[in-house]
Amino acid sequence: MRIFPGSPYPLGATWDGLGVNFALFSEHGTKVELCLFDSPEPGPESVRFELTEQTDMVWHGYLPDLRPGQLYGYRVHGPYKPFHGLRFNPAKLLVDPYAKSIARPVRWNHALFGYTFGHPDADLTFDPRDSVEYAPLAAVIDSSFTWGDDRPPHTSWHRTVIYELHVKGFTKLHPMVPEPLRGTYAALTLQPVIDHLQSLGVTAVELMPVHHHAYDRHLVERGLSNYWGYNTLSYFAPDLRYSDSFKPLESVREFKMMVRALHAAGIEVILDVVYNHTAEGNHLGPTLSMRGIDNPAYYRLMPNNPQHYLDFTGTGNTLNMQSPRVLQLIMDSLRYWVTEMHVDGFRFDLASTLARELYEVDRLGAFFDVIHQDPVISQVKLIAEPWDLGEGGYQVGNFPVLWTEWNGQYRDTVRSFWRGNAGVVSEFATRLAGSSDLYGHSGRRPHSSINFVTCHDGFTLQDLVSYNEKHNEANGEDNRDGENHNISQNFGVEGPTDDPVIRELRRRQQRNFLATLLVSQGVPMICGGDEMGRTQRGNNNAYCQDNEINWIDWNLDADREALLAFTEHVMRIRHNQPALRRRRFLRGVAVNDMKDVTWLSSDGQEMTPDAWRSPGLCWLGMLLDGEAADEIDELGRRIRGDTLLVLFNAHSQAVPFTLAGGSAASAWECLADTYDRSRELNVWRASEPYPLASRSVAIFSSAAPPLRS
Q1: In a designed cystine with 172, which of 86, 208, 475, 551 is the match (CB 3.0 to 4.6 A)?
Q2: How far is residue 656 CA from its own chain's centroid?
Q3: 43 and 86 share a domain?
Q4: Strands lying side by side in the sheet with 12-15
Q5: What is the DSSP code string of 7-55?
Q6: Is 670 found in the same domain as 599?
Q7: Are both 192 and 101 inside the same structural domain?
Q8: Largest distance between two CA atoms of the chain
Q9: For residue 115, what are the contacts with CB-CB under 8 A and spacing of at least 6?
Q10: Does residue 77 sit in the same domain as residue 55?
Q11: Which of 461, 609, 581 is nearest to 521 (CA)?
């Protein structure tokens, strides 16, 4: 077989119907060899081709008659000078950074390391052993797919409700999913699974990482895995582990089928992406891909000691966002997932890392400039995790206008309020109103705040109210890993209990958190399974547990059924009430003799400055004017909703709360009460006290039928 010059673009392996073009960027490499394989089974390559053509530091070649399914990898020659940041080692088979499918995952062996593993001089040595039997392999794909009439739902931000889920854990134990399909992309296309999402009222699923990732060696040696997936190896390939066929070409097709099915149900697909680091780790990590292709071009190295890496992520390395080729890699990946895989947006893990030009976080860094001018990526949903582990990395509220952010201050304030902490009511009101203090100064809207109480990282909602201490013993680190505090409330008993009083308090606190989340301005995000009381048995760092600790249990007892029903009920209230999903911040501005929001004390009167400063205050009323709602229908007409009254009581004692009267309403219909659901749909007179129970939320609507005398 003869190799032809081919083209330097596009990067990666591209089948054109007649053959395959291969293109790989390496600035400092001196020779690049393309290796082809007949099988994913261990063994040497069947043939090698030297890519002799080089254009703008891209090595390229074209092989006619090659077809989709062809397995391949690279060997890149060049100097091995760790002191200078150069780590070329042609004995190590390397994965194409643009690989669209991974046909064989990493099989850990000392031969995967560029240096002699265990040598006293560590990475300053050179290891000549061939890694071919253990290295991951890429596969050429056929990108064709029948999308039919697939269209992105384009759900407006103010109407969006996000549900964070893990592809495997969501359906691994689902009784209505056939056993072979459980834990796969295909499972998310099945009607029972989609019915749950639709009944819950979510408009978008945020999938934890589906880019193909490597399991960390130290976890594999302990019988664990990198279950969460924040250890990316390939930014273009859907993880083969979630394919029911476990075939490289089918994994791409199955992912597309999943997106198509969710779109047909009106549900957007958002990917949690990890562009801040890769699975190659620090200077003692393996040589799997970018390290051996061009280490100083792809990674941030210490300026005065390029043997070592700058690490803003806690994982050992950081991608070099100063490199135009790395920016191109990320942008090409993002565009691929939108244009070829039809996803609707991205949540960027440790997004502050992507903004770092030198050491400081630059909110107008090159990455943001490129995103904002891109005609494809600028039009999809962009969510930042606005922090990293470096100095100055906590950047909540500082991302540019197109971006939304995980609001860590919302999480912390809401947890603190429901613990009953004094002195947080004022900030609690700010978070309920959309966090204008964080986002309003730059012209952003309430939807910039992704509100959440729990996420994959930390306690589940059930565990949040059941444990004050983490129980991560199963992780094999003597319970040293994970955050060591919980600012919620376990009511004096850790873990499971048969005490009916404590069980009811815990159930109520879960309802309080969910109700608070769904009546707050901004975009609510629910952690998958929280609506059903999912537990991780006190593990608040379950990243390595690919088992029942993480998998959702769908066999619901009466308590969990009731929590699910309550969540669905309050979600319907949110979707039916424009006052709960405003496009602009609540500012207490009068409209038609009534403010868009009025904060009330327990006497039914507007909060005064002295009332806000009252020691021990841990209750509050929120009055939302339905006439001031700013939602617009498809004809440009204002959608008016009911005036709503929401009462919050985090105190350990009941608080008689006088219901607002006057121009607000003459009567109130109780839509929800986290203490006693028998109160719902009952009508209460305005200006009379409502028995607001301890640790409870009550939601009222002014659209009540007339009271009979």
Answers
A1: 551
A2: 40
A3: yes
A4: 12-15, 19-25, 58-64, 53-55
A5: -S-SSEEEE-SSEEEEEEE-SS-SEEEEEEES-SSSS--SEEEE--EEE
A6: yes
A7: no
A8: 95
A9: 82, 122, 123, 124, 125, 126, 127
A10: yes
A11: 581
Bridge-based pairing of strands 102-104 and 86-87 is: unpaired
CATH number at residue 616: 2.60.40.1180
Using DSSP, state whether 302 is helix, strand or coil.
Answer: strand
The span from the CA of 143 to the CA of 584, in Å, is 41
pLDDT of residue 375 exceeding 80: yes
- Is residue 149 included in any domain, yes or no? no
**Within a domain: residue 7?**
no
**Exposure string over 363-392, b if 16+ CB within 10 A, otherwise e:** bebbbbebbeeeeebeebbbbbbbbbebee
Return the pLDDT at 662: 83
Burial class (CB in 10 A: 0-12, 13-18, 19+), 194: middle
pTM score: 0.96
Q: What is the pLDDT of residue 708?
A: 41
Tokens of 55: 């254009």
Residues 564 and 598 in one domain: no
Task: Tell me the CATH number at 377.
Answer: 3.20.20.80
- The structural domain count of the chain equals 3
Separation of alpha carbons 544 and 540, rounded Å: 11
- Of the listed 344, 349, 427, 642, which one is catalytic? 349
- Token readout for 636 is 């440009």
Position 486 pLDDT exceeds 90: no
List Cα–Cα distances, 548 to 227, 526, 561, 644, in angstroms. Answer: 12, 20, 19, 41
C-alpha 657: how far from chain center: 38
- pLDDT for 56 equals 97
Catalytic annotation present for 385: yes
pLDDT at 709 over 50: no
Those residues whose C-beta lies under 8 Å from the C-beta of residue 689, and which sit 6 or more positions away, are 656, 657, 658, 659
Do residue 80 and residue 224 come from a single domain?
no
* In a shared domain, residues 396 and 517: yes
User: Cα–Cα distance between 466 and 502 in angstroms, integer?
Assistant: 9
Tens of pLDDT, residues 502-551:
999 999 999 999 999 999 999 999 999 999 999 999 999 999 999 999 99
pLDDT-based confidence at residue 313 (cuts at 50, 70, 90): confident
| Residue 80: domain span | 12-139
85: left (phi > 0), else alpha (psi -120 to 50), else beta? left
Assess whether 349 carries a catalytic annotation. yes
Q: What is the pLDDT of residue 398?
A: 81
If 0-12 CB within 10 Å is exposed, 13-18 middle and 19+ buried, where does residue 498 land? exposed
Decide which of 578, 602, 631 is a domain's last residue: 578
**657 pLDDT more than 60:** yes
Per-residue pLDDT tens over the stretch 347-363: 999 888 887 755 566 65
Evaluate whether residue 2 is within a structural domain. no
Tokens of 247: 């075939």
Closest CA to 447 of 406, 416, 388: 406
Please give the Cα distance from 439 to 357 (Å, whole number).
23
Which listed residue (123, 206, 268, 385) is catalytic?
A: 385
